[in-house]
Amino acid sequence: MKSKRPDSQIISNRFAVDSHRPDPAVIETAAGILRRGGVVVFPTRCLYGLAADALNAAAVARVFALKRRPADNPLLVLVQDRSGVVPLVRRVTSAADLLMRHFWPGLVTVVFAAREGLPPNLTAGTGKIGIRVPSHPVAAALVQAFGGPLTGTSANISGQPGCARVAQLDLELAAGADALLDAGPLCGGPGSTVVDTTGEAPRVLRAGSVSARAILRLLVNPQRQLD
Q1: What is the distance of C-alpha 201 from the center of its chain?
Q2: Comparing C-alpha atoms, which of 196, 205, 192, 187 is closest to residue 78?
Q3: What's the CATH number for 14-226?
């Protein structure tokens, strides 16, 4: 049974944020919580997400527990820009570089071969890591203030729909987070398209904001698409 809607009495660190011009003081407060191993509910382009320090195995474990996520299902991460990819991956293929240049920020999550030394629970033993640069101003500001990769998974119980409104959040999940950045209703709709670039040919693992056809068109004829 789905829990009741969250309210301000249960979520003690609930901050209203402007979707376009988030208050730097609020963002820095949330970033400080993340540096201490906390978990923050925050807005992304379509849905609310769960942010934690992606390089802190204990913080990552909290995200898995809050979502009741299977341990074999890895988490995607958010970085500030393309330079943030390098410390996390073994290599950047030409296809991955093309996807990043064309679709970032937002829209597409690119899956890379993960560099050794990342928290095992983050990659769920797959040897791969999905990365995206966020387009929502609050998400982008949070990643920048934190100064490192953050988890970007949706703030929902695994197997349940994502949440475009705070009122849709599972009560136990919201209460278990250390802070919530409430930007009001989000646009909803499909999340990012996930493309695996680790093999000989890129594969669309999940269709989303960008169609598989658009991905294929770009990869087949990049010059035309980038002109």
Answers
A1: 24
A2: 192
A3: 3.90.870.10
pLDDT for the residue numbered 207: 87
Residue with tokens 């191993």: 37
Check: CB of residue 129 under 8 Å from CB of residue 111: yes
SS3 state of residue 29: helix
Q: Tell me the domain boundaries of the chain.
A: 14-226
Query: Distance of CA 191 to CAs 15, 24, 26, 116, 164, Å?
Result: 24, 26, 25, 28, 11
* Strand ranges in 52-191 using DSSP code E only, listed in sequence order: 77-78, 108-113, 128-132, 150-151, 153-154, 179-182
Does this model's pTM top 0.85? yes
State how far the Cα of 91 lies from the Cα of 49, in Å rounded to an integer.
Answer: 27
Q: Give the pLDDT of residue 9.
A: 44
Q: What sign results for the dihedral spanned by CA atoms 78, 79, 82, 86?
A: negative
**Cα(179)–Cα(189) distance, rounded to whole angstroms?**
24
Of 44, 37, 41, give the one whose Cα is nearest residue 60: 37
Whether the predicted pLDDT of 151 surpasses 60: yes
